[in-house]
Write a structure and sequence with these properties.
The structure holds 2 protein chains of 2 kinds. By secondary structure, chain A is α+β, with helices and mostly antiparallel strands. Chain A has helices spanning 42-50, 92-102, 107-121, 136-148, 166-183, 194-200, 218-223, 228-233, and strands spanning 4-13, 16-26, 31-35, 57-62, 65-66, 77-80, 154-158, 186-191, 203-208, 211-216, 240-246, 251-254, 258-261, 270-276, 282-283, 290-301, 305-312, 317-323, 333-338, 344-346. Chain A folds into 2 domains: 4-232, Rossmann fold, CATH 3.40.50.300; 237-346, OB fold (Dihydrolipoamide Acetyltransferase, E2P) (Beta Barrel). Chain A is elongated. By secondary structure, chain B is mainly α. Chain B has helices at residues 3-52, 57-60, 74-81, 87-118, 124-134, 139-153, 160-163, 172-184, 187-195, 200-211, 213-228, 232-237, 246-251, 262-293. The radius of gyration of chain B is 27 Å and the shape is flat. The two termini of chain B are 48 Å apart. Classes of the chains: A alpha+beta, B mainly alpha.
């Protein structure tokens, strides 16, 4: 187990910056997920930690050693790639043993480690097969096996589940989580899938356009997003955002929808954005601080729950979540109730408005 | 839908299927006839040479039929020993030059291609452009400067001018062929190998090369054919008959001063193309196996 420290890490391609000075401390034994939309620089950052990409500026330390000038193999880490990157001409056994052979490890030790990894990942019967004879899930297991045989101090995962179908992805997610619990090694995991991020991470780092937006536990990110980007990126379905203006009386006026008293401790003036998660818009509710009348424009039935797309009188569509047995149909008139304690507030610059400490 | 309508539709579908099958058969037949005729036209010179290698001298140009009236197997024996030096020597010489050239070409060109396809070095674009430009220079343009260079080095009348350049990645065609192939291989394989502790050479040797068998086999086949049947190179650099390769030796059957021995010449010509066919058959399997192996996902 080892910690990883990124200090003012920058990356530019031909003078064009893609990573803008990232400071991040990944604690020893932590499962940190780097998440963000496509092109946000999360894979680039991971590859810089791996030593596959040069660092334009700043330092990366693994443990207490700065690794900027060390090659990938000298960093004592393993990486699982999106496309598995199994050597097609080698059997599964050779794929697993290849890296250990390069370390000039004794043959009995190589065999022991390969057998152990195969046992953990339940791929013992696949050892003599070539990668082309494996299914997607089996390939993924072998790729993970190749990473764990080295017994590295750090695991890196670059969107390892994105080539799998939905069912297998869920299964592998559980297996990866149990592998993490078993090994306890520091893991850095890149994904654009926030479900993966939320379910597996001990902490999540949200990246956007090469900048770190927020680092925190899944709970912190979901319940206390630092800015509008994190608020709208974390959570599926997305948070509803409504524009409002806070007047001199300290109440927020939502144009055409009414007034809302801000939660205690928040004092602001002018334009703000009000965020509310779909589960906090209660259809047919009457005990809210604000009621939003509208019409159901679309119903998405998911069994245990139902998502209602509601067209408000202002022309804006918001999404509300209701239990699966809720009796709403398309074109039904509806009233959504929201409580001021459930809302997230962001100033004109998109930063979260926090309650003043008592 | 009523039963009568269903029955009518079914009959129509059956008629359509029969018609379609008949059309497909007719098209297939026409296609095969065309291909057979074209193949015969293409293979006729080879068959004629084979037939002529078994005909008596007086029938070769007098009788255009492919089936010899009498089989002159003697042509092969005579041809083998017709010249002051036996064809055993010529075949051995050709084998030495060709095998070394193929090895040199495949190794050196794949090294150069790997560098262009995977490594970063200063002036890469310029070097690549220069390399591609050499594709456009005809061999005859560089023949005299090359001859003078090898003369200065004292290499004329040896095999060195025919072999050494092959080890110096001198054939841009093969380099380009391999670059294109290497570029198709996912870079993640290289990166996985880097994390597994491979140096650039080890990545080439353990990962890229085994996955590039189709490109290597293609380069080997072309290199073999072009070197084996090369006439100009040996003609320029080899003066002693003992050093002659097969194409030079074949030329000696045709003489302006005396009567040419066409029967033995065709017999030796037939023997001279056998190694090419054999090499092609062996390495063609490698191409197919290589393609099957590089199915990455």
């Amino acid at each position: 187990m080892v910690s990883v420290t990124l200090n003012e890490v920058r990356k530019a391609y031909a003078g064009h910056p893609v990573i803008h000075g990232i400071d991040l401390e990944i604690r020893s034994g932590e499962f940190l997920v780097l998440v963000g939309p496509s092109g946000c620089g999360k894979s680039t950052l991971l590859r810089m930690i791996a030593g596959l990409e040069e660092i334009t500026d700043g330092t990366i330390a693994i443990g207490d050693r700065i690794v900027n000038d060390l090659s990938a193999s000298q960093r004592n880490l393993s990486m699982v790639f999106q496309s598995y990157a199994l050597y097609p001409h080698m059997s599964v056994r050779k794929n697993l043993a290849f890296g250990l052979g390069n370390l000039r490890m004794a043959r009995p030790e190589i065999e022991r480690r390969v057998a152990e990894a195969a046992r953990i990942l339940q791929i013992e019967e696949l050892l003599e097969r070539k990668p082309r004879q494996l299914s997607g899930g089996q390939k993924q297991r072998v790729a993970i096996g190749r990473a764990i045989v080295r017994e590295p101090q750090l695991f890196l995962f670059d969107e390892p589940l994105s080539n799998l179908d939905a069912e297998l992805r869920v299964q592998m997610r559980v297996e990866l989580a149990s592998l993490y619990n078993r090994l306890g090694t520091t893991m850095i995991y890149v994904t654009h899938d926030q479900t993966e991020a939320m379910t597996m991470a001990t902490r999540i780092a949200v990246l956007n356009k090469g900048r770190l937006e927020q680092v925190g536990t899944p709970f912190e990110l979901y319940n206390h997003p630092r800015n509008l980007f994190v608020a709208s990126f974390i959570g599926s379905p997305k948070m509803n955002l409504l524009q409002a203006e806070v007047g001199a009386d300290g109440r927020a006026e939502l144009a055409g929808l009414g007034h809302l008293t801000l939660p205690a401790g928040i004092t602001t003036r002018g334009k703000i954005t009000l965020g509310v998660r779909p589960e906090h818009l209660v259809p047919g509710g009457s005990d809210g601080d604000l009621e939003l009348p509208g019409k159901v424009s679309l119903v998405e039935y998911l069994g245990s729950e139902v998502f209602l797309y509601v067209l408000l009188s202002t022309g804006q569509t918001v999404l509300a979540q209701a239990p699966g047995n809720a009796p709403f149909r398309k074109d039904d008139p509806i009233t959504l109730a929201l409580r001021s304690d459930d809302i997230h507030l962001f100033d004109a610059a998109g930063l979260r408005l926090e309650r003043a400490q008592a | 839908m009523t039963d009568a309508t269903l029955s009518n539709t079914s009959a129509l579908a059956s008629q359509y299927r029969t018609l379609k099958l008949r059309r497909a058969r007719r098209a297939g037949l026409l296609k095969h006839i065309f291909l057979i005729i074209t193949s015969l036209i293409m293979i006729y010179p080879l068959l004629w040479m084979l037939s002529s290698s078994l005909k008596p001298e007086n029938q070769i140009f007098g009788d255009l039929s492919l089936w010899p009236a009498t089989f002159e197997w003697e042509n092969y024996w005579q041809g083998w020993n017709a010249l002051p030096v036996s064809f055993t020597t010529f075949f051995w010489n050709s084998t030495v030059v060709t095998v070394l050239s193929v090895i040199g070409n495949v190794i050196s060109c794949s090294f150069a291609a790997y560098a262009f396809a995977r490594l970063e070095f200063s002036g890469k674009t310029i070097w690549f452009a220069l390399m591609m430009m050499t594709l456009m220079i005809p061999y005859h343009v560089v023949l005299i400067p090359q001859y003078l260079l090898f003369l200065q080095l004292g290499w004329v009348d040896t095999y060195l001018p025919l072999i050494v350049p092959r080890f110096l990645a001198g054939d841009a065609f093969f380099i380009f062929l391999m670059i294109q192939f290497f570029r198709q291989l996912p870079r993640e394989l290289d990166e996985a190998a880097m994390i597994d502790g491979c140096s650039p050479f080890k990545i080439y040797w353990a990962i890229i090369m085994p996955l590039s068998l189709p490109a290597m086999a293609t380069a080997a086949i072309f290199s073999f054919i072009w070197t084996w049947e090369d006439f100009l190179g040996p003609l320029v650099y080899l003066n002693d008959m003992k050093d002659y390769t097969v194409p030079l030796a074949l030329r000696m059957f045709v003489s302006q001063d005396s009567v040419s021995q066409y029967g033995p010449m065709f017999a030796m010509s037939i023997l001279s193309i056998l190694p090419i066919i054999l090499f092609f058959v062996v390495f063609q399997r490698l191409i197919i196996r290589g393609i099957a192996m590089s199915g990455l996902k």
